[in-house]
Amino acid sequence: VFAGALFLLPLLGCADTTNVQVCPGTAILAATARLTVMRPNAPRDPSGELYTVRLTGAKTDCDFDKPTSITTSTLDLTFHASRTPSAAGATYSVQYFVATTQGARVLTKDLHTASFSFAPGAQTADFTDHISDIHIHQEANTYGGYYQVTAGLQLTEADRAYNRLVGRYVP
Fold first, then answer.
1. Model pLDDT for residues 45-78, shown as the tens digit of each residue
2. Which residue of 13, 97, 101, 159 lies most exposed, with the fewest beta carbons within 10 A?
3. Per-position DSSP letters for the chain, written without gaps between them
4. How far apart are CA 158 and CA 44, in angstroms?
């Protein structure tokens, strides 16, 4: 009897609903984590690359309003851009999406733009962008773990084809 009681002891915490996750998870969609921008009128191969941007990190935080079952999340994204050597500085922007999902179902998808600069002579640039007020109304009998905040770079079909061509699915 005593051995059986020791076996059940770790399970007692499972009935405690105060530890249920209420915040959504976060992820970067791997197939959309990299974008290569080509020089105008250049071939669509590595010799024509102007710069590459990678989405390298996503961190979220949230508050949960229990009476309304609404989570309000913030999202901090980190990016890394690289280019071939150039003495000139340059400023660019990249479009990315933030989607909220419940399983395979997309609840919302919003487009955002982040600007970044290469200093004169620099081959890399690291930058961040912050999104606030991502709201998710949790349906009855669900919890935050059923939901996810997913980010990725907004790619065209040509961008996706280039990533497949050069084997760049992951950051």
1. 888 999 999 999 999 998 888 888 888 999 999 9
2. 13
3. -HHHHHHHGGGGGGG-GGGS--S-EEEE-GGGSEEEEEPTT--SSGGGEEEEEEEEEEEEEEEEETTTTEEEEEEEEEEEEEES--SS-EEEEEEEEEEEEETTEEEEEEEEEEEEEEPTT-SEEEEEEEEEEEEEEPPTT--GGGEEEEEEE---HHHHHHHHHHT----
4. 9
The dihedral of CA 15, 19, 20, 25: what is its sign? negative
- pTM score of the predicted model: 0.81
Q: How far is CA 171 from CA 46, 57, 92, 156, in A?
A: 17, 10, 20, 18
In Å, how far are 24, 71, 73, 76, 158 from 101, measured between CA atoms?
9, 13, 13, 18, 25
> Are the beta carbons of 70 and 135 closer than 8 angstroms?
yes
**Look-up: residue for tokens 């340059």?**
90
Report the alpha-carbon distance of residue 86 to residue 50 in Å, rounded: 10
Enter the tokens of residue 38.
Answer: 């080509």
Sign of the dihedral through C-alpha 121, 156, 147, 139 = positive
